[in-house]
Amino acid sequence: MAASLSLKDVSLHFGGVKVLQDVSFDVEPGVIFGLVGPNGAGKTSLFNCISGHYRPSSGSISIDGTEASGSPPARLARLGLARTFQHPALQLNASVLQNVLLGGHTRLPGGPVSWALRLPYTARSERAIRTEALELLDRAGLAWAADLPADELSHGLHKGVELWRALLSRPALLLLDEPAAGLSHGEVEQLIATVKRLRTEQDITIIIVEHHMGLISALTDRVVVLDHGRKLMSGTAAEAQSDPRVIEAYIGKDAADDAA
Ligand SMILES: Nc1ncnc2c1ncn2[C@@H]1O[C@H](COP(=O)(O)OP(=O)(O)OP(=O)(O)O)[C@@H](O)[C@H]1O
């Protein structure tokens, strides 16, 4: 089931530095939502608050109505949250398949004791998740790479492996942090097609941080623009691109006045 997300007055301070200030917005279940803004606007910091990697200084973050603010990533994974990172966080010495399988960990029944003892029901679940991981890789055209060390793959494929790892957890809420960064034009087109397919085939809410406005326009139903840690506006990608406040935030007031 796709999850909803609600942020109310989320602030994040590091010492005297105000990274986020009173950010509020709601994301309805099943939408593709964009989080955009100039460099340093606070997008990744906000993702880190949502995914439990940062604890907000104040405010509330709820997933499907359950307060999630300050919860550790493992608890959020059980609430159905998965994410990718701006710089892929892979086990480079492990195989591609082993990396993808890490995403299935949250679906294993039992706990550390039954996992260590490899009880029959644990082993059965492990086999089923492994089959599903191989199917995901096959559909992505990556079956040939399953047993290769992740280290041997290109940057674009590292991004793909992170995405398949996140999907193996069967997330209800998926956060993609700059999924197009460093990809070639063809790889971005492929990524857009993949996310479109996800939307039609899976009941999932997706939030994307991205500078690539082509990808944001192609995929998102709605965006929020952040600037200097504050919400500047929300609307469609087209509305954001023609909003004078957004243009000013990206290119500066003088340049925006000159362009007007
Ligand atoms: N752990 C931290 N300690 C101190 N300052 C931080 C920390 N994490 C982020 N910041 C600061 O918060 C601000 C926002 O950074 P963030 O990476 O969230 O922006 P962003 O919008 O994702 O930028 P980009 O598009 O360049 O990735 C920056 O000024 C950054 O230096």
Write the layout of secondary structure elements.
Blueprint: E1 5-14, E2 17-27, E3 32-36, H1 43-50, E4 58-63, E5 66-67, H2 73-78, E6 81-83, H3 96-101, H4 112-117, H5 120-139, H6 155-168, E7 173-177, H7 185-201, E8 205-209, H8 213-219, E9 222-227, E10 230-235, H9 237-241, H10 244-251, H11 253-259
Parallel strand pairs: 3-8, 3-9, 6-7, 7-8
Antiparallel strand pairs: 1-2, 1-4, 4-5, 9-10
Helix pairs in contact: 5-6, 10-11
The structure holds adenosine-5'-triphosphate.
Adenosine-5'-triphosphate (ATP) binds next to strand 2 and helix 1.
Write up what this structure looks like.
- The protein has 260 residues and is of the alpha/beta class.
- It has two domains: 165 residues, 3-Layer(aba) Sandwich (Rossmann fold); 63 residues, no CATH class.
- The chain is built from eleven helices and ten strands.
- The structure holds adenosine-5'-triphosphate.
- The site of adenosine-5'-triphosphate (ATP) has 11 residues, from β2 and α1.
